[in-house]
Each structure stands twice: as structure tokens, then as C-alpha cells.
Design brief:
Shape: globular
Structural class: alpha+beta
Largest sheet: 3 strands, antiparallel
Helix content: 40-55%
Radius of gyration: 17 Å
Distance between the termini: 21 Å
Number of helices: 5
Strand order of the largest sheet: 2-4-3
Length: about 130
């Protein structure tokens, strides 16, 4: 619960729909689809679908706030690094999924149809 509280404190000045989406991602233990995530925090699926429909605007606000958070938490003389991790999620039977691509999957050692979410984090020694 400590992590959730820290996230909430960091998000208190952010758009409430972004906060709801982040909490859904953190608190849902099942599949990460709108129905399952909405059930995890007892909100309507429509609210999450509306958030995703405005993804361009929301992603710009998330980016702005992440950069602000990174600069506000910066400590002098403590080295920081940006870690970027692309991860292939195999989708054998995907034909019409958006952004599907072909990539070599590390677990099967074959070229597979995959989605490639990219995770980025700022890390330091503290």
C-alpha cells in the first residue's frame, strides 16, 4: 500500500482520469483490459474507454508531468540514468491488431508476431 500512497501523492495535481488509469494498472491483478481494470477499482468501463479515446492529449500531459517529476526529484551530485526496455509480447494469432510487428522473440528464438511496449525509467543511486 505504501507504493500506491506514494503514487497518489505524486499524482495529486494531475488530471483525475490519468490518476484513475494509473491506479487501474497498479491495482488490477488480472488481465489489463478495460473491463478487468475497471472492476478492480469499481468504476465503469466507459470511463476507461473515454480516457483511451483521448490518448494523444493524455499522453502529452503524462509526458509533461513525468519530466517535471524527474526534474523536481533530482539531487545534485547523484548520477542518474534513463533506462529504456523494449519488451516483445508474442501474439501468434494476431492478424488485425494495431501496431503488430515481426521481431525475434527471445523465449522462442524465432521471428514472431509481437507487440513491443517500451518501458522507460529514470534511476539513480538513492
Amino acid at each position: 500500500m505504501y507504493i500506491v500512497q506514494r503514487v497518489l501523492n505524486s499524482l495529486k495535481n494531475i488530471n483525475s482520469s490519468i490518476m484513475t488509469y494509473i491506479l487501474c494498472l497498479m491495482l488490477s491483478s488480472n488481465r489489463k483490459n478495460c473491463a478487468a481494470m475497471a472492476r478492480s477499482v469499481d468504476i465503469s468501463e466507459k470511463r476507461l474507454y473515454n480516457f483511451l479515446a483521448e490518448s494523444t492529449i493524455n499522453s502529452q500531459e503524462i509526458e509533461k508531468n513525468l519530466i517535471l517529476l524527474a526534474s523536481e526529484t533530482r539531487k545534485k551530485d547523484v548520477p542518474r540514468a534513463l533506462v529504456v526496455d523494449p519488451t516483445a509480447i508474442i501474439k501468434h494469432y494476431a492478424e488485425k491488431m494495431e501496431n503488430i510487428c515481426h521481431d525475434r522473440a527471445g523465449c522462442t528464438k524465432k521471428v514472431e508476431q509481437v507487440l513491443v511496449p517500451v518501458y522507460a525509467a529514470v534511476i539513480d543511486k538513492s
